[in-house]
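DM from R.C. (forwarded with permission)

"hey, sorry to bug you on a friday — could you get me a structure for this? deadline for the figure draft is monday and I only need the backbone to look sensible"
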Amino acid sequence: MIEKNERQRDILKLLEDIDIPPYMYEKADSRYKAVAKYIGEHADLRMNMYAQGSFAFGTVVRPLKDGKDADYDLDFICEVDKERGDITATELRTIIEKALAEGKLYDGKVEYSDECITIHYAEENGVGFSIDIVPAARESKENKDRLKKKAERPDLIDTSIAIPMGKKPMYKWHTNNPKGFQAWFDEINSPFLELARSGHRRALMESTDFYNTVEEIPAGMDRSAIQRVIQILKRDRDLFYKNFSDLKPISAIINVLVADVATGCDVDIGIFELLDLVLEELAESARCLKDKQNGEILLESRIVGKRNKGWYIANPANPEDNLASAWNEDSRIPDKFFLWVEAARKDLIKSMEQSDEEFRAIFESAFGQDVVQKSWGNKYETKKATPIMASSKPWRRV
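My reply, with the result:
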């Protein structure tokens, strides 16, 4: 049986294959800046466009559609230099849409939905990407002052924004704070990232000929133990919930969970040690949930826990945002979540103790057969393994 350390190295190879490749990162970076310039010129607005979500956090994982790898979907905020009281949510959304419609640069590439505006780009080497643009205005001083009084970290609140939400044409303002969330995450991740940076950059240089020197590698391509654990969990989640996408936990929950657990760890903790601690934290919440006598009380102290008998996961940058609000509207969501936790422990931790064939079959289930075959070839196969299909497992937002 192949040793545990080698298995872990092979899992990290899988991550490299589903992470955003360097050439795609560079294209996405240059094209969102071009979009920002175009909107600014055609809308006659001062504005700032910046990444949110996985592109900002350095936790991009190639998405899945129908169990197969799909194009990368990257999220950006288009924040105009106006306060929410100076413009309505519908007016802002209309201005941005009209700006993109002017000229022919983005003809046939733009798709409109209630949540965002999406620009699709052509595939290159069989891989494409899209940019999701969310218009935004500055949040009002009154709302920020209110949030500061409630916040554990009032210093994060000043970057709060208002985004149009609802059904066209009746959009309403909704408070969000991606920059504050990012600042909270970066504060925790920074020492872990600094320790991992040199080793990761050397590995990236060896695996691609896109960069000539390590100095050319942008900071957005660096990966810490925290970011790697988030990527592992996101990929396992995506396949686990393949047939239940409406119940899938949002990525912000995974980000908060991993970063929060990491705050109690030494910065030199290994990726798989941190992964084990995160899954143990979730397993402990599941055990508290089953404790009929003390469960509700015990859950109050957990990251994924309950407040006033309702599920609650704090958004560190917005005290009025419960990341688990959907869990209280549909009991299937927390039920499936803890089933995923149990399955993830089997997939990602206990698989280290299985035979080579079983180990490979588990990761074909957790990461996808095509990804495993591309990365590992026929390794771990002494005879043809029968993959464990994700759809056989009992298992909303991204």
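R.C.: lifesaver. The radius of gyration is 22 Å.
me: no worries. Residues 390-398 have pLDDT under 50 and may be disordered.
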